Amino acid sequence: MKYGGTSVENAEKFLNSAKIAIETYNKGNEVVVIVSAMSGVTDMLLDAANKSLKGENISQIINELRSKHFEACKNIIDKELLSNTKKSIENLLLDLEKSLMGVHYLGELSLRSKDRIVSFGERLSSLILSKTIQSQGLSSEKIDAFSLIVTNNMFGEASVFFDKSYTKISDSISPLLKKDTIPVITGFIAKSIDGDITTLGRGGSDYTASIVGAGIDADEIWIMTDVDGIMTTNPKICSSAYTIPEMSYLEAMELAYFGAKVLHPRTIEPAISKNIPVRVKNSTSDSLGTLILKNTKKNHKVVKAISIIENASIIYVSGAGMIGVPGVAANVFKALGDNNINVYMISQGSSEANISFVVSEKDVEKSENALRKAFPTKDLVRDISHIKGVNIISVVGKGMQGAVGTAAGLFSAIAKDNINILMISQGSSEVSISFVVSKEDGHRAIRAIHKAYLE
Ligand code: ASP
Ligand code: MG
Fold it and tell me: 446 near 309, Cβ under 8 Å?
């Protein structure tokens, strides 16, 4: 059971989350809890890190963190446990302050130090949640995921060594479950083989939950959040959006990758490897949420969900010299990869005289500079240009696989609304079709498709 930041944003929410865990346990289940930092805390820690780097005073942030976490303990932690809990919070803050001082004195903020600094968010929240469970009379233990999840040293978004991690997880968690203890594990953070603290990328607690779930061969992985599961589209864009009761692993992966923020994109992988269903649920309502599994029941809906990536740009690379020359595409994408630029979508004209791709708007200049460096003469690549301000709309649904006419239907639905398409791409799995429109048309396109396929 994983609780996100909003499910532990104050004392009331901590208590609510603890109670759901206990209720589930009392129904005869073994329960393992994973928890994110309190809402906003990861950003506060990053802010503190940047302030330290600039030599600014961080005592205000430390005080804010102290009062936020002290406030969260109020009335939910037993008197006998409270002073110890507060002492542990003070110790963690002291340790945090030392790390921030290090940044300040060295005048250097590496990704490694950043991971160390943000790790305190989850270390603090897991402590409070575990003490809250204990205060309800159950046995609980707070566990730092350092001792469970082993990664490489790609700080900021480390890769997990699964086999090593699964062994550690099962070795340390299974005995606790046998002792009727509810473990509360820090989400998001891990340790490298060299023993440095690493993180799994922003929103990484979802991923922790599925890694731990796979490690203990859980029956289900629950992602507890502040919405009623995964919705057909963003309800802020389309008011008739609704919760999807069931979807497949593949659909959920496509959706998470293309901008739907409910799940960390890598969450599904460990679940697939052990065939464990993932349920996305609201921690403050009784709705069943969305169940993600290998094979869904036959669903006649061709399209299941629509997502959007905003603030994107198309970059065009063209030149008659590119025609029939092997390796041009490889060099284009190598240049981007070497500069850590993430490419959302790619398309090549059949004449081979142009390649276009979509990146985040913030990466446009960096991409163009990288390409100019990679192709210094105009022999191969003549022009490099871009369009800023585009949206990628991604339409996901396993029912599109082998269904003739889906693309035609989609595009005629948006053509009726007079929306121009700038670029199209279909995943070879046929589980998604993505296309690019200008940002003025993005929301309208979503509403048109939702109306045609999901209402
Ligand atoms: N606390 C981390 C973040 O804000 C991880 C998470 O919430 O899943 O990104
Ligand atoms: Mg999240």
Answer: no
State the distance from the centre of ligand 2 to the C-alpha of 274, rounded, in angstroms: 22
| 134 belongs to a structural domain | yes
> Tens digits of per-residue pLDDT, 272-329?
999 999 999 999 998 899 999 998 876 667 899 999 999 999 999 999 888 888 888 8
**Environment class of 168 (CB within 10 Å of its CB; exposed 0-12, middle 13-18, buried 19+):** middle
Lining residues, ligand 1, CB within 6 Å: 4-5, 36-37, 42, 121, 187-188, 202-205
Domain boundary among 191, 215, 239: 215
β-strand pairing of 383-396 with 432-438: antiparallel
- Nearest-angstrom CA–CA distance, 134 and 140: 6
Q: 245: which 2 tokens?
A: 């009761």
Distance CA 276, CA 148 (A): 19
Report the chain's mean pLDDT, rounded to a whole number.
Answer: 94
Mutation to probe ligand 1, out of 202, 206, 223 (largest number of atoms < 8 A from CB): 202
Task: Name the residue with tokens 């936020």.
Answer: 68
Q: Which atom of ligand 1 is nearest to the CA of 122?
A: 1
In a domain? residue 299: no
Instruction: Supply the residue whose CA is at minimum distance from atom 6 of ligand 1.
Output: 203
pTM: 0.88
Domain boundary among 181, 215, 249: 215
Residue 271 forms part of a structural domain: no
In the chain, how long is the greatest CA-to-CA distance?
A: 77
Domain enclosing residue 360, as ranges: 305-453
Which atom number of ligand 1 is nearest to the Cα of residue 204?
Answer: 8
Q: What is the pLDDT of residues 409-439, one digit of tens each?
A: 899 999 999 999 999 988 767 788 999 999 9
Q: Are residues 309 and 174 in the same domain?
A: no
